[in-house]
Design brief:
With 132 residues, the protein is mainly α. It is built from five helices and no strands. It starts with a helix and ends with a helix. 30% of the residues are buried. The mean pLDDT is 83.
Length: 132
């Protein structure tokens, strides 16, 4: 159902991945992730997957699997950020901090919380089915 806590976590993940990633600077460029097409596409894909997961409330197993896939995508994005931070040349570029670098970490936390709630719902349904 849409009024579950995992829907709130997933909606926040959509807002963080889809909205904040476009607004906050990453430190690698002046305008955000638009100069890095892989990052832009990764954040949009993460937001779309989170939005799809919200509406799959009848199929909790698929929700859980897509949640794990989304966590993996955000780990890859975090790895790209670390790679770019370590391989950027010039002191002026390295000195600039970008708060947008923590967006994948925030998304991972929200997706883990959503997956825990989805798993809890699945266990609750299984326990009720045993009583019938």
């Amino acid at each position: 159902m849409l009024q579950r806590i995992q829907s709130l976590y997933l909606f926040l993940a959509v807002l963080v991945s889809g909205g904040l990633s476009q607004v906050l600077p990453t430190g690698f460029d002046k305008i955000g992730v638009f100069d890095q097409p892989f990052l832009y596409e990764g954040f949009i894909a993460s937001a779309i997957i989170s939005l799809i997961i919200i509406f799959l409330f009848r199929n909790r197993k698929l929700q859980f699997v897509l949640g794990r896939l989304n966590i993996l995508l955000n780990i890859i994005l975090l790895g790209v950020f670390v790679y770019l931070a370590l391989n950027i040349s010039g002191e002026a570029s390295v000195s600039e901090k970008g708060i947008g670098r923590i967006i994948p970490l925030i998304s991972i936390v929200l997706l883990v919380l959503a997956n825990k709630a989805i798993k809890k719902d699945e266990e609750l349904v299984k326990s009720v089915d045993r009583l019938r």
